[in-house]
Structure formats: C-alpha cells, structure tokens
Specification:
Elements lengths: L2 H74 L4 H28 L1 H6 L6 H23 L5 H52 L6 H35 L4 E5 L5 E4 L4 H12 L6 H17 L2 H7 L7 H5 L3 H7 L3 E6 L5 E11 L7 E8 L1 H15 L9 H9 L3 H6 E9 L1 H8 L1 H16 L7 E6 L2 E7 L2 H12 L3 E3 L2 E3 L2 E8 L6 H17 L5 E3 L2 H23 L2 E10 L5 E12 L3 E3 L1 H11 L2 H16 L8 E6 L1 H4 L4 H12 L6 E6 L7 H14 L2 E7 L9 H4 L3 E4 L18 H13 L3 E5 L4 H10 L3 E3 L9 H17 L1
Parallel strand pairs: 11-12, 14-16, 16-17, 17-18, 18-19, 19-20, 20-21
Antiparallel strand pairs: 1-2, 1-5, 3-4, 4-5, 6-8, 6-11, 7-8, 9-10, 13-14, 13-21, 14-15
Length: 809
C-alpha cells in the first residue's frame, strides 16, 4: 500500500477525529460564552454597588439638611431656610432618580440572578422604596415644621433619625445582596473557566498550549478585576471619609496621630493660631504636632500618614485635651473646643473605639463631630427657659433656682421683694398693650439701677417683679419708689406709675414659693393701705390672705345672687330747688358679712375685672328704676369706672339696658371719671360719639383732680361737669361753711359755660355752700345738705312731693 493511499485512508479518519472535536469545541465555546456572560454580570453588579454607594453618600448629605435648617431657624429666623429647602429638593430628586436607575438595573438582570440562585426579592425592593420615601418625606416634612416649639421639633427630629436609619439599613441590605450576587457570579465564572480548561485539554494537542495561554490570561484578568474591585471599594470609602465633616483620626496607643481626614485641618490651624498668639504653653511642641497633623492629612492614606506623624513627639491628648483610651474603654463621649483663626470657637463631641487589635487599623479610631450649632441652640433655649422674653430679666424659674442655691447663712441675710405696679391695667386699657409693654421694660430698667451686683431682679409675670436682695432692704424700697416717681414718656404721652412693694425679711426655713407668697401678701397689704408704699410681711398678714380669697368668693356669689342694691342721691337745682337728677350708687349687704363698704369692694372689683359684671347689673337696675321718674323729667346718672369705659362692649350694654327697661335715652346720664378719658384721645372720642348717638347724657366726674387737657373738652361732647367735693367743702384753710377753693370753682364754671355745659358741685353740706355756689353760676348741687343716698321708694316720695308742690303753685 502506497503512502498516498495511506494518506488518503487517514484523511477521513482525521476528518472524523476533527468532527468528533466539534461537540467538544462547541462545549468549549459555550463555556467561553457563559464565562463572559458571568463576568459581564459581575461587572453589572459592581456598577449597581457603585450606584448604591452614591445613593448612600447623597442620603448622608441629605440627613444633615434638617439639623442645618433647625440651627438656621433658631439663630437667624427663617431668612436662610429657602436656600436650604432648594438644596434639599434638588438632592431629593437626584436620590429618587438614582433609586429608579438602581431598580431598572436590578430588573434588567433579574433573570440571570435567578439562574445563579438569587430569585427576585420583591420585599427587599419594596422595603427600599418605602424607607426611601419615609426618609426623604421626613426630611421634607421636618423642613415644613420648623415653626414648631423647639422641644416638640427636637422630638420630631429624633423620630425622623429613625427613618434615616431604616433607609440606610434597607440600602445596605440591597448592597449586601448585590455583593453576594457579584461574588456568586465570579465564583461560577471561575468554575466555568476550570471546566472550560478540562474540556479544552480533551481536545486535540493542537489546542493545548493555546488553551493554557487563554486560561492564564483569563486568570490574570480575574485577578486584575478583583484588585480593581478592591481598589474601587477603597477609593469609594476614601471619598466618603475624606469628605466627611467629622474629624476622624487614627492614633497609636501612645497617642501619636497616624491618620487624619482633611476636616481635621481646623484642629491644626487652631493649634498654630494659639501657639503663634502665645495662648498655650509649650508652643514649639504644639506647632510640631500641628505640622505633623497637617502632613498626616496631606498623606491621605493610613500607611503614608503613619510615616508622616513619626517625628511628632506630641500625644493626641495634648491636641484634643481628652484621654482617648479612657473614652474608648468607657464608651462615654467627651467635648473639646478650638478657636479658629477668625476668632470663632467651635465645639466638638468626641467618641473613640479601640481597634488596636485589628491588624488593618492597629490603633484608636477617634471621631469628633462639630456640635457648635447644637450647643449654641441649647444655650439659647436654656436662656429662653430662664428669662422673660419682653424685659430680658430672669423669670420666676430662674428666681427659684437662685433662691434654692442660697445656703442657710445667706438666706438669713436675704430678703425678697414683690413689686406690683399701681394702675398698670388702666395704662394697658388706655394706651394699648404696646405702650404697656414699653412701660414694663422702662420700669424694669429703672428698678435695676437701684440694685447691686449679685442682687437678682426677676419678672414674675404681668406687671409683677421679684427681687432677691441681701442687706438692709429699707433704703432699697425707698430708692425703687423714688426712681418710679418721674413720669415715663412713651408714645408722646407722659405716664405716671407707682409701685406697691411687699417685703419678706429673713428667708431661713422658707423655700422660694413660700417666700414669694409671703411677699405677695405683704404687697396686697401695701395696696390696701393706699398703694405707692412698702409693707413688711407679718404673721398677721397671713390671716388676711385667706380673707381676700373669701372676699372674692363671696363677691362672685353676690353677683350670681344679685345681692347688690342701688340707692340714689339727689342733685338739686340751685335756682329751682327741684330734684333734677339722681346719682345711682351701689351698695352691698351680704348675708354673711353684713354691710360691705364701696371703698372696699369697688377697688377689689376693678383689680379682679369683676367690675364689668357689677357695672352691667347696676346699669340695668338704675334704668329700670329711672322709668318711674322719667315723666317728671328726672335724669338718673350711673357711674362708669375707667375699667368699664375701656370695655369694648360698653355701648352695646347701654343700648341693651335702655331697650330692656324702656327708659328714654335723654333720662340716662353716664358719669365718667376724668382719668378714664385720658390717654388714647382718638379712641375716647369714638366711644363718646357712639354713646351720644344713643341719645344719653355724658358727664365728667371728679373734674379738677386729674391731669386734664382742657383743650380736649370741646371734642368730647360732654353735657355736664361735676366739680370734685375737695373744692367745695371747707375746713382745711378756712371756715367749714365756706368754699375751700372758690377761685377754682369760678374758673371751672366759666369754662363749662363757654362749652355750654351744666355744672354740678359735690360735697354741698351747708346753706352757705349752696348760696356761694349759686352765686358762682353752678347749676346743680349734691351733698348731705340736700339728702343722703336713699332707697328708690324714698325718691318716689320726694319726686311726688315736689310734683304736688308745683301743681299747687
């Protein structure tokens, strides 16, 4: 057989052999394709992991927006909040976009993941979407609730931090699953590669060397990819840490700094500034430590920074002023502060972990977080909790705190003063609360000038002040009353104010509440004795305090039971001798107390605000009684106190009383004290015009005793001027049957006539008084000379007798 034939016979066999390699080649090709797909899938999973890291970085920045906004609102108000909201909205949209991209990438490879044994985890994806919505919605909602009370807002933010933690945990779960899938894909790819090598070895020897080269190349690629993945992971961690606002340091057991983030540069700068200005000792060592810290920051990596810090013989305790090892072992936190070159002082909260046993770290990891804004906010809130927002004075809580800090010896020498302004409610009603607030600030300033360093002036509330004083208290009370006597010029008006002061001496055995209570009791005793005075607490006063509470209880009960009665004192025409008018006067005969004088319950009613209800009852009763005398053209005058005059419902109450009683408006006269029409002249004119529109008569009572601006009278549309009895009764500088100040009476009469007003003189007690007043042109006289206040039935008889006398003539 020739070689040609042999070759011809072998060619089919080689073809068959080559053909037999086709399945193996196809299998090898298949393994190559599967391996490529696995590597591609692993790369896709690494991109998902990178995207998760980007979302985590953005969410970390988003988490800081709320606290920045919280601090901005507390320090600057709402001026900077719009910019922060815009920043939050942009970052929120970016996070949502990346979450959508992440979900899309997950869906794109869901089928391949299932083949690797990782079926889709819908619950995990739903949890990520839910927690993201909770976290980002919480951030947005928290920015919308910046106007809440600081304590409520802080609790809201603490709850919001839980949303952030839940979102981080969900994101971490997604990232962990992606890492597992990537690792599984790489592992399966390696197994397929080994199978590919085995299959390839079974192929013809022609492919052995080539397959080996391919295999080695693929192994190198896998290793390169693994190293690249590690490098990317380290770079990602470094970007996060290097851009963190916290100061992160790694120190050795002896305290030397081995690594520091760029944010720690503020520490180095502050040390250099302090050393250069001579504010710290051992400046050379401090500067060396600062320079070493800067080199550690510049090195940027743990190993490189270790070499940079070797030549600095300075421990971290000297840099931060804290014992890192002690913090790490105890689990507690510490604080230190640094002064920046621009003079700003920053406060840091320090935490530490002992990782000296970890070969990758081999040191303590120190984390210092900037809490300056939080501490400033806490200080501001603490100050607000202890001080009055209007006057800036300490409040009652701060007073109690200072009081409780006194020892027994200090309390024995100390005194408590309770200061209450006399007539402050009238100032508020007359000039408005704005002027009242200005007056309180001015009063606080004047009182403060009387105190020494170490004494405490606190605002109790309203127009009440407390003083904690050590030493002789008498000169102090005199000084306080003296500095308050000059008028206060507010809103173009001169306002006079006095103070009633209650004093408690010797505070041993008392707590702050009891001392203030006793001083309050003494202050009310000063008010009862005429105001503008100081009274020292005595045990006898303690029994009077329950009496005041009982009086208020009985007064309220009397209003409910309508125990108050009305009597009437005639005003007689000095020319006609006829009863032309009556003054309605309230009387209280209590079933328990008997007769209670008006000088006691009227001031009490004005202080407590009960005068509104009392005045309404008196007005209604007087209108019902006046109907009995209106056919005789008798006018009934009802007193309106300054507190009542400022009542916005006064006009409606007068209208209702007239309608219910059927009294003609012309037969009702409202007597308003001179002090009531002072102050807000424009408002006084408006009220008087509304009353005149009802058809009632208006009278100014006690004229001449206040601070009237006579020019205002022509604008008030007043019908009657009542001359105070102090200008009528004699007995001071002359005989009792003569006028005490004839010149003033004559001047008032002349002015009243010029304004076409009638004049009534009070305090007429003798024939001479009546004669002199008639000669001066006074129209009506009122006093015991004509009649005492009497019951309505006696007025019936008087009016009837006068009617019969006129008829007989």
């Amino acid at each position: 057989m020739t070689d040609r034939n042999v070759a011809a016979r072998r060619r089919p066999r080689r073809w068959i052999q080559w053909l037999s390699l086709v399945p193996m080649a196809a299998l090898a090709l298949g393994t190559v394709l599967v391996s490529a797909r696995l590597h591609e899938h692993a790369e896709h999973r690494r991109r998902i992991a990178d995207l998760s890291a980007e979302i985590e970085t953005l969410s970390t920045a988003q988490a800081g927006v709320v606290w920045r906004a919280f601090a901005k609102v507390q320090s600057d108000g709402r001026m900077g909040l719009a910019r922060i909201r815009g920043e939050e909205q942009r970052r929120r949209e970016e996070i949502y976009a990346k979450l959508d991209e992440l979900a899309e990438m997950e869906r794109a490879r869901a089928e391949f993941d299932a083949r690797l044994g990782f079926p889709p985890e819908t619950r995990l994806e739903e949890r990520l979407a839910y927690t993201a919505g909770q976290f980002l919605g919480g951030v947005q909602g928290s920015l919308g609730q910046m106007g809440l009370n600081p304590d409520m807002l802080r609790r809201r933010l603490d709850f919001w931090d839980q949303n952030y933690g839940a979102f981080e945990e969900a994101l971490r779960s997604v990232r962990d699953r992606d890492d597992k899938i990537a690792a599984s894909a790489a592992s399966v790819a390696a197994e397929v590669g080994r199978a590919k090598a085995v299959v390839t070895l079974l192929m013809s020897c022609l492919f052995v060397l080539r397959i080996g080269a391919i295999r080695r190349r693929r192994e190198r690629e896998l290793e390169a990819e693994r190293l690249a993945a590690v490098t990317r992971s380290e770079a990602r961690f470094r970007r996060i840490v290097q851009n963190a606002s916290d100061l992160i340091l790694v120190t050795e057991e002896d305290g030397h700094v081995r690594y520091a983030t760029p944010s720690a540069g503020v520490l180095a700068a502050s040390i250099e500034h302090a050393a250069e200005t001579g504010e710290i000792d051992r400046a050379e060592e401090a500067l060396a430590a600062a320079r070493a810290l800067t080199r550690a920051i510049d090195a940027g990596a743990l190993d490189a920074a270790e070499d940079a810090a070797r030549d600095a013989d300075r421990a971290v305790e000297a840099l931060l002023g804290v014992d890192v090892a002690e913090i790490a072992s105890s689990g507690d936190t510490a604080e230190f502060s640094v002064e920046e070159p621009d003079g700003a002082r920053r406060v840091y909260d320090v935490r530490a972990r002992d990782l000296t046993g970890d070969p990758d770290v081999a040191g303590f990891v120190v984390n210092a977080r900037d809490v300056t804004e939080q501490r400033d906010l806490e200080d501001m809130l603490r100050h607000q909790a202890m001080h009055d927002p209007l006057t800036g004075l300490p409040n009652r809580r701060r007073f109690e705190e200072r009081f409780e800090a006194l020892d027994a010896e200090q309390r024995d020498r100390a005194s408590v003063l309770f200061i209450d302004l006399d007539g402050f409610k009238l100032v508020n009603d007359t000039y408005g609360h704005g002027v009242g607030d200005e007056l309180l600030v001015a009063v606080a300033h004047r009182i403060g000038t009387c105190l020494r360093f170490g004494d405490l002036l606190a605002r109790q509330g309203g127009d009440e002040f407390l003083v904690l004083f050590s030493g002789d208290v008498t000169p102090l009370t005199e000084s306080i009353q003296e500095v308050l006597r000059p008028p206060f010029t507010l809103d173009g008006e001169e306002i006079f104010v006095t103070a009633s002061v209650g004093v408690v001496r010797g505070l041993e055995g008392l707590d702050a509440e009891e001392a203030a209570r006793r001083a309050d009791i003494a202050m009310y005793a000063a008010k009862r004795d005429g105001k503008d005075r100081a009274e020292v607490f005595t045990d006898a006063m303690a029994t009077a305090a329950p009496e005041r509470l009982a009086l208020e209880r009985d007064f309220r009960r009397a209003l409910e039971r309508e125990e108050f009665t009305v009597v009437y004192q005639p005003k007689v025409g000095l020319e006609s001798g006829r009863t032309e008018s009556l003054e309605a006067l309230v009387r209280w005969v209590s079933p328990e107390r008997g007769f209670v004088g008006p000088d006691l319950f009227i001031p009490f009613a004005e202080e407590t605000g009960l005068v509104h209800e009392l005045g309404r009852q008196v007005l209604e009763r007087a209108c019902r009684d006046a109907v009995r005398w209106q056919d005789d053209d008798v006018v009934v005058a009802v007193n309106v106190s300054p507190v009542q005059f400022r009542n916005p419902d006064l006009v409606d109450e007068v209208r209702a009383a007239l309608a219910q009683s059927g009294l003609r408006p012309a037969n009702l006269e409202l007597e308003i004290t001179e002090s009531a029409v002072l102050g807000d002249i424009a408002n006084t004119i408006r009220v008087l015009e509304r009353l005149k529109a009802l058809g009632v008569r208006l009278a100014i009572d006690d004229f001449g005793t206040g601070y009237s601006n006579l020019a205002h009278l022509k604008h008030f549309q007043v019908d009657v001027l009542k001359i105070d009895q102090a200008f009528v009764r004699g007995g001071q500088d002359g005989p009792e049957d003569r006028l005490s100040d004839e010149a003033i009476v004559e001047a008032v009469v002349g002015m009243a006539k010029a304004f076409e007003m009638k004049v009534v003189a009070e305090g007429v007690e003798t024939t001479a008084h009546a004669k002199d007043l008639r000669a001066l042109g006074v129209d009506l006289g009122q006093g015991y000379f004509f009649s005492r206040p009497v019951a309505p039935e006696e007025i019936d008889a008087r009016v009837a007798a006068e009617r019969e006398a006129r008829t007989a003539v």
